[in-house]
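OP here, attaching both records as promised.
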Amino acid sequence: MSSNKTGGNVQRIHVGARTLFTPGARQLVKVGMRNIAVVEHKGHLYAIDNACYHHGGPLLNGDIEDMGGHPCIVCPWHSYRIALDTGEGLYVGIDVVPGAAKPVPAVRSKGCKQRVHQVVCDGGEVYVLVDLSGPAIESDSYANMALANQEGAMAAPRESGGRRPLGLHSGMRSGQVLQHTAPSRAGTSNPFSTAPPLLVASGDRRHCSPVPELTVSCCRILPVSEGVKEFYFHRADGTLMRLGQPGEYIELELPLKDADGGHLRRKWTICEVNKKGALFTLLIKARTANPGGASTWMHNYALHSSLHVCQVNGHLTHAHHARRLHELQGRVLWLTAGIGISCAFAALNQSFNEDLAVMPSQARGALHALHLHTDCAVAAVAKLPDLLDLQRRYADPTAAHTYQLHCYITQGQAAAAATQTYVTSGRRITAADIAQRTRSFFGDGVRFLSFVCGPPAFVNDCTDALLSMGVEEDLILTEDP
């Protein structure tokens, strides 16, 4: 495989002889870090970035099907359909036709999600024209990620149906990363750490061996609730080894001094990934009591600032505890206070809006989530409209997937809250509330997994309440220290 410039920003990549591309054949080529899958389908050649825009799945191993007049490659991880000719994400929705007996299925587009490239044949040889000068596309996040592009280029196409031996990337499952043993502070194996931090600052020896330095830049800030904003970040420079999962935390280095005179480091929960073209988003609440602190600095100065990434880690996700949740038939309790709700939203949004939407029906496990939240005011509850929408869509107690939210609002809003059945006003949550609502939702004496997120006093009180109810200690998960 060779490369040469054709003018402007276009690279002309030589792939090989056209005669080698028999029906259904496919070949992996490499342009810098970026892996590109070249696929033959019904006499045509297509080139598409190999790492799927959703979670980086290897498209080279996907089946191909026609959908809405487009040849679509099906991601082998989550069955996302991507048009080989346009890069659009396609799905089957429904159209309600007046007078029709039932809704009519209809193919719909999510817009261009995956970067595709032009393929030309010249003198019997195949070339891919790579032009990255246009606007960013969601799949670019994974095209620039080292872990999603570990496999080397193929010398020749493989035959249709002749599956390539699994490599470092294609042999991984969704959410799986390189497995290293990460000892806890006590020197014993940490049962919650299924993946060590793979984003480590250059020269940082506190964790695994260092990787090339990564910086991210805040490209957008949007208000979410009273005092809370959502910060959108994209990669500014360096190598992205893996994208964190919603619910994990990311540690950023800020241009502020800590108590020892070094740069201040602060951890925030990853809220969503691949949202509106951003690598990830964070929910950050301004701390009025600490005007010189990290959160206030982010609200005032983060936009367009480049920040150093120290690590990504954490265990407060449903994916990290999938085996335990399966054993408990999907029963999970979230106890949150203040901005601690960001952990719950990240996990619940991922499970209900992402995973359930793409998993085949036979692969979907049960999920029954009870969420009890404490805050100072209804207007301060971050992502409340989204959570209420989840509750509306998953309200059926007899269904396999259910979600129930109840908020305890400390400020007196009795009149305003009278019509809001999801609100108890004028007080904090109590141990009696937790016991009563878990019995009502899960049943008496039924085991469930508990996540507790919020200020230290809240976490301690809720943990004590759960233990007094007989909940096993290993079924109570709290925020990382």
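Record two, same layout:
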Amino acid sequence: MAQAPSSPLSPHPSALLFLVTGIPAAGKSTFLAAAQRHVLQRDSISGKVPLFGGRCHGRICAVLELDKVLADLDAATVREKDTAASAGEHKFSPRLWRRATRRLLELTQSALRTCIAGTVNGDATENAVVPMVFVEDNMHYRSMRERYYQVCRTLEREEYSLQSSQKDPTAAGQSRQALIVLFELRFATPLAVCLARNAQRGNPREGSGKEQARASAWVPPPVICSMDALFDHCYETADPADHAAWAPCHWNEWQWTATTQPWGLLVHATQGAEADEMCPTAMSETAACFFDVALQRPEAWDACQEQCRNIARSRLQRLRDDEQMDETTRLRRAAETVESYTHQLDLQLRGVVHAFLRQQNQQKAYGTDAAPTPQRAALFRRRIVVAKKEATQQFKVQLRQLNTAKHERIDTITIDLLGSGIDDIQESVVQQFQQHLLDLWRELE
């Protein structure tokens, strides 16, 4: 009979990982800057803030932002080319975006590994300081957020293996097991507001020097529309506004929200003119509400404890599944995983196409200079159909290659890796498809 690891649960997390998500120009980076200022204003010496109603304290150890990683990669790419020839040619690239998201994940894993190394055997009292890592990315697919959740579990297993390899088994069994708790902070800003903010950043192809630096975060409107259309909200109900679990804070609209994801979800949702407030004062209030209200509510501690219990249960269930699952069941589960992802890919490609066509129709309706002629618009639609078929075929070919590579050993961990591998392929195919549509779109301009 499989047994769960004997290390006791910590009275508080070993580390907290906050995923700050939302479509481009939703306010994520502005919030992170305000959050860091708020922490320093509270305690400029130690940088500590109370967590979970004073059960422990936290300290920001790392703030990782996609835009900064993108800027670093973009600068490195420009240095590899002729700078003079590249002037004025800076443009949005889904391929570069994908590289940046991978690099962001690597940086997060490194930061978390450093954090838990110093906390697993540290202070277990209410005076303990929990390291906090904030990661900003769009993460419009659940699989993108799930990847960070799995990184947390991997780091926990690494730490447990390290403890188990100690010479004194008794000491290893009595040490507290690492637990990294993940919370998602989602900015549910209206699409129209995000498009307006993005337009203020300017098109990087239309400027130079300081104007291009300011426009480094600019994203083509069709891409923002497709992200909004494809965003996996993962709410427990179709209409989260009617769900009882939406218990709004009394200040600035942070809401603990029921979700189908295995981590806590905190949504910042505003409507109308309120959503377009980007002044420092407004975002400072948002940051203060997050630390002083949302993280102190009972729902925060409940979500933390529930996640810890679920992690412990899943560890035991994984051991039991590996004992009981025969080869037929393993193969069936692997096949079901592939079938499910194939259907998801089709829906995602349709969503990307819909967003691009909607943007095209809006340009036509408003009579903008960029609106294509009817003939070129029809050609664009025909090429989209061809591109979608090619993307689907590419996905199937890569799935067959992945299945062949993972055929020799199939257990619960391998099935999870299969899903992770499909996630990678799926995101790559969608982003390549998006790049193809962007190239076609630019031909029409």
